[in-house]
Structures are given as structure tokens and as C-alpha cells.
Write a structure and sequence with these properties.
single chain; mainly beta; Immunoglobulin-like; 5 domains; nine-stranded antiparallel beta sheet; 53 strands
């Protein structure tokens, strides 16, 4: 017994053979002087303990019974096993992959049988894969088991001078936050002895600590809570602020919730609660920022992350942005416009307020669905504006304030319209009309007058009252202005004079005047001079005495078709009068008599009632300087 029959090895020369239940049978009839041979093979089992193996054959015949035996001595030579475990890196970082190699070697004279190797990966190592050079290996419940002498075809052996290798790959836990030593041990059993070997890897964490450096959580103050996103998509005035806290090792007994209207929590409001949420109601419109911290008897945690929500309930429009008013020349016509760049809450109309003071004491309101409003014909003054949006829920907030200053006065006259305000008349003492008038007023004495011009024509007909003074009746609303106009003679002679009035009373009895006169005899060529006069209280004062100027054109258009215009600029700066003629500066005169008189006009005088005095005026403009 103890031998293992090798299937298919049983043969005989003659007769019949068979094998069943460990017994080989042969049957045949042998004649005299004949023989037979039976051949078979048997295998010594791997688990044999040594000693003698005896195989007995029995021959049963009709006359005699023969038994023969053959014995074999089995000597079991012991294996000499060794277990070596190594790792691919002695130093690693979190998240690195390590390769472990387990090598089983047999340096003995006998084969090794029924070897079992086990390896349990330490914590902080995540299994990835394994492979074995021989045998079978598997992972179950974190334990890797390897049978180097157990294969798919049955039991294997590890022969003398043979070895087997198991390779395991694992990943270092990437969340390791401190330096650890990972020791992995393999065990070998099944030969009557326990072998083990281990491989170690140091996982080092390089960290930078900034004061204060917390090395130990003592005292056990709470951790920082985590504030949830605030769920308030409709921007209503009620909502709940909630947070997460699940640290049992440092429990928080209460929480402090801070609320502020700016992300820097400049002037926060604090709420204390024992729960992890807080309900807010009836909040005013605005943006609210929140952060929370935990408290216990040891102290308070740091602040959580910051979350915010916008309250706009009811959802009235936001404040528009009023643009700067484009009115650099301070005209009486301009457009006020604004921008509304919000799409979540719309404005269906706008209310524009206008006031003459920045406090909007007595405002005027204009309602429009546009984002602009045009004004024209505004009187002199400063105008302030602000705008707000309106929808079905109500009115939003006011915008920023913009303002503009309106001079409220602009004047230009080219005498092309006979109804523009200047007098058109004829009498015994004076005469005036628009030269474009197809039917000008004419005296009945056949006096000469221009019929081919487009200026304003005046004439002095005699020396008695009323004098030849004409005005459109317009007052300049400032003491700072610039007046420009063109003048020339249509006809005139010795001491004929025309006047340009400014700073005058409405009836032109008190005035300042630039005066131009012809200072030549009737038969001589025309020579002109000018003066600057102030008339008031029945007397005249010459601020500038009569002065001859070669640049002052003195031709008479009635007899000289090439007669040129003189371009006058009279600039008034409070008590200063500045004169220009044909682009040349004449001088500046300071006079404090100037009062509230604001009118302007023209006049003409003659010498002893005999010499003609008939000037023309055109292109009259006035610009206010303040």
C-alpha cells in the first residue's frame, strides 16, 4: 500500500489484466514450458513519510498457491525553504504606487510540497493587482493567499534549487496627511515551520507650518462648520441659512451666525443658535453675506466659508444708471438718458424727476417707457435729474443724480425775417426797416434807401424827439457775454454817427455805446473814428475819446458798391468792457457804473439836421459766458 497506480501502464504478454480498487488481476492458462509477463507502473506519493514500500503478488492455481513480494526503501529528503519580501521604494509620497515582490526559494535536496503564503496589506495601502509565477493566488477580505504548489492540474512541487515569485501592487492612500511607516509582512506555512519577512516604506509629508502652529487639537475647540449654499432663487424676503457640522471628537454646543451687507463683514449682526440652521423673515431688500462658527466650553472655531443671497421682494426694478448729460454749451435743449442692464427683473416704465435743487424739494416728474427724455426751451438755471424704474410690483430705487446748467439765452439775427422783433417804421424823426422787406415803410419825401441788401437799415431824419434808437426788446440775462455784429455806412456825411447800444435800459435812455462817426467835410473823402461812451442821468461820459483808426472802414455803399463791413466784438466781463474791431484788440475799459441794464440796440445821429446818417447792421449774435 501507499503506492499510486499509474493509469494506462498495465500490460501483459498473454492473458487478461485489469485494475480495480487498488488490485491488479491477471488470468490465463499456461501450458507446460510457457510463461507470461505483466508490466505496470506505480508512483510514490508526495506525502509519503519514508520507510519501506512492499508490493505482493499472489498466484492461485488448481494445485498450488504461490506468493511473492518486492520491497522498496523510500528515503524523503527535506527541502530548505526561504522567504524574501521586498518593496519597490523605501520612500514614497501619498498616492504613489508600490510593488511588493515575495520570493520563495528551495535550496534543499528535496522538493517542497503544500506551501501556503499569506499577505495582508496594512491600512493606508489600497490593493491594485497581483500576479504569481507558479501556483494560484487570490484576494479575499483584504488577505492575499498564495499556493505556489497548487495548480489547475493538481498538486505541484517546488523542486530543489527552484523558486516562485508573487508580485503585488498597491497604492499609498493619497489622503495621508502625516508621516507614516507602512510595514507589509508575508507568512509561509505548510512545511512544519513558519517563515516570515517584511518590507517597509516610509511615507513622508512635507508641510509648511505658519504660526500659530497647531500640532495637537487641544483644547478640543470645534472645527470650522461648512455653510451650505442659500436656496433663495426668487429673492424673497424669507429664507433659511443652514450649515454642516459632523465632528463628534470636538462637538459644538452652539453656533454663532454672522450677517453683513458687505463681504468684509464690516458691521455684522450676530445670531446664536443651538441648531444648524436659522430662518430669516421680513428682510429688507439688499445683498446679505453669512458665515458661521461653532462654540463649546473650550472656545470657538474659525469662521466657515461665506455664502450670500439677494433679497428683492417685491421684485421692483433696480436703480438705473443715469448717464452724464451731454450739454457742453449749456444750451436750453438737451437729452437725459439712462441705462438699465438687468434681465432678471424688468422695468416696464421709468419715472424721471427734475428739480432745481439737489434735494429735489419740488420735483417735476416725467413718465416714459424709453430710456431717455428730451428737453427743449429750458429757462436759465441748474437742473437736477434722477430716474427710477417701475413695474407691476411698484417703483424701484432712485438712480444717481446728474445735473446740467442752462444759460437760457442764445441770440442770432441775420435780419432775414421781417417778423423777428426789430422795429420797422418811418416817421418825421427816424426811419428803420428790414432790407429784405418787399414793402418797407417809406417817407413821402423821396428819401434814398437801399433796395439791394439784406441787413437792417436805420436813418436819422431830424434832430427832434423821438431819436433814432431801435431795439428788439431782448434782455441779456447775464453781465458776462460776448456780442458780435457787422456794420457799415449806406450813406452819411460830416459828423454822421451810428451807435451800438449794450448794457442799456429797456427804453435805451441809459446805455453804453460803441460810436462811429464820419469826421470829414462833405466834399472830402470819408474818414471815420470811434469812441466808447456811457450815457446815464442825462449826461454822457466818453470812456474812450474819439480816435481815428485806419482799419475802420468808412466807405458809403450808396456811392461805393465795394464798401466793406466792419466786424465788431464787444465783450462784457462784469465791470470790464473789451473791444475788438475786425479781429484786432482795441482795449479794455473798467467801469463800475454798470448796473442791472441788460438791453441792446442801435442808434443814429446827424449834424444840425442836415447831413444824412444812414447805417446798416447785420449778423448780430450774443453768447452768454457763464
Amino acid at each position: 500500500g501507499g503506492l499510486e497506480f499509474v493509469t494506462g501502464s498495465l500490460t501483459s504478454l498473454v492473458g487478461q489484466v485489469g485494475y480495480a480498487d487498488g488490485v491488479i488481476t491477471w488470468s490465463h492458462s499456461l501450458s507446460e514450458l510457457s510463461y507470461d509477463e505483466v508490466h505496470f507502473q506505480a508512483r510514490v506519493p508526495l506525502d509519503v513519510r519514508g520507510g519501506w514500500l512492499t508490493n505482493t503478488v499472489e498466484i492461485a492455481g488448481p494445485i498450488q498457491h504461490i506468493s511473492r513480494s518486492a520491497a522498496v526503501s523510500v528515503v524523503v529528503r527535506p527541502p530548505d525553504l526561504s522567504l524574501v519580501k521586498s518593496v519597490s521604494a523605501a520612500q514614497a509620497d501619498p498616492g504613489d504606487t508600490l510593488t511588493y515582490t515575495i520570493r520563495v526559494s528551495n535550496s534543499g535536496e528535496g522538493s517542497a510540497r503544500t506551501i501556503l503564503v499569506t499577505d495582508s496589506l496594512p491600512s493606508r495601502l489600497d490593493y491594485l493587482s497581483h500576479s504569481a509565477s507558479v501556483g494560484m493566488a487570490w484576494l479575499s477580505n483584504g488577505l492575499i493567499t498564495w499556493h505556489p504548489t497548487w495548480g489547475a492540474t493538481g498538486t505541484l512541487v517546488l523542486p530543489p534549487q527552484g523558486d516562485a515569485v508573487l508580485t503585488i501592487t498597491a497604492r499609498v492612500d493619497p489622503t495621508i496627511s502625516r508621516t507614516v511607516r507602512l510595514v507589509n509582512t508575508a507568512y509561509l506555512t505548510g512545511t512544519g515551520q513558519l517563515l516570515q519577512d517584511q518590507a517597509a516604506t516610509n511615507v513622508s509629508i512635507i508641510s509648511y507650518a505658519y504660526l500659530p502652529l497647531v500640532l495637537k487639537r487641544w483644547p478640543p475647540i470645534p472645527y470650522d462648520p461648512v455653510l451650505n449654499t442659500i436656496n433663495n432663487p426668487d429673492r424673497r424676503d424669507y429664507y433659511t441659512v443652514s450649515w454642516l457640522y459632523d465632528h463628534n471628537d470636538a462637538p459644538a454646543t452652539s453656533f454663532t451666525l454672522q450677517e453683513a451687507t458687505d463681504a468684509n463683514f464690516t458691521n455684522p449682526t450676530e445670531y446664536t443658535t443651538g441648531s444648524t440652521s436659522y430662518l430669516f423673515t421680513d428682510k429688507a431688500n439688499g445683498t446679505y453675506y453669512y458665515r458661521v462658527r461653532g462654540n463649546n466650553s473650550y472656545g470657538s472655531s474659525g469662521w466657515s466659508n461665506v455664502e450670500s443671497t439677494v433679497v428683492r421682494w417685491p421684485p421692483v426694478p433696480y436703480a438705473p444708471t443715469l448717464n452724464a448729460i451731454n450739454n457742453p454749451d449749456n444750451q436750453d435743449s438737451y437729452t437725459v438718458s439712462w441705462v438699465y442692464n438687468y434681465t432678471d427683473i424688468l422695468a416696464t416704465s421709468y419715472v424721471l424727476q427734475e428739480a432745481t435743487d439737489a434735494n429735489f424739494t419740488n420735483p417735476t416728474e416725467y413718465v416714459t417707457s424709453d430710456t431717455s427724455y428730451s428737453f427743449s426751451g429750458k429757462s436759465r438755471g441748474t437742473y437736477y435729474y434722477r430716474v427710477k424704474g417701475r413695474n407691476s410690483y411698484g417703483d424701484g430705487e432712485w438712480s444717481n443724480v446728474q445735473s446740467t446748467y442752462v444759460v437760457g439765452f442764445s441770440y442770432f439775427e441775420d435780419f432775414s425775417d421781417i417778423h423777428s422783433g426789430w422795429p420797422s417804421e418811418v416817421s418825421k424823426t427816424r426811419w428803420a426797416f428790414y432790407e429784405v422787406d418787399p414793402n418797407p415803410p417809406l417817407p413821402d419825401d423821396g428819401s434814398l434807401y437801399p433796395t439791394d441788401g439784406n441787413a437792417y437799415f436805420i436813418a436819422r431824419r431830424s434832430g427832434s424827439e423821438p431819436r433814432a434808437r431801435f431795439s428788439p426788446g431782448v434782455a441779456i440775462p447775464s453781465a458776462n457775454y460776448e456780442m458780435e455784429l457787422d456794420t457799415r455806412w449806406w450813406d452819411g456825411n460830416f459828423y454822421a454817427t451810428y451807435q451800438i447800444f449794450f448794457g442799456a435800459s429797456s427804453d435805451l435812455t441809459d446805455y453804453y455805446a460803441v460810436q462811429v462817426r464820419i469826421n470829414t467835410a462833405v466834399s472830402g473823402p470819408p474818414i471815420c473814428e470811434y469812441s466808447l461812451a456811457r450815457h446815464g442821468g442825462g449826461s454822457t461820459v466818453l470812456l474812450k475819446d474819439w480816435t481815428y483808426l485806419g482799419s475802420l472802414h468808412c466807405e458809403r455803399r450808396r456811392t461805393d458798391s465795394s464798401a466793406q463791413w466792419n466786424h465788431w466784438k464787444i465783450r462784457r466781463e462784469n465791470n470790464d468792457i473789451i473791444l475788438y474791431l475786425n479781429g484786432s484788440y482795441l482795449g479794455t475799459w473798467h467801469d463800475t457804473w454798470y448796473g442791472a441794464n441788460r438791453y441792446f440796440g442801435v442808434g443814429a445821429t446827424l449834424y444840425e439836421g442836415f447831413t444824412p446818417s444812414k447805417p446798416e447792421f447785420d449778423n448780430w449774435s450774443i453768447t452768454v459766458l457763464d
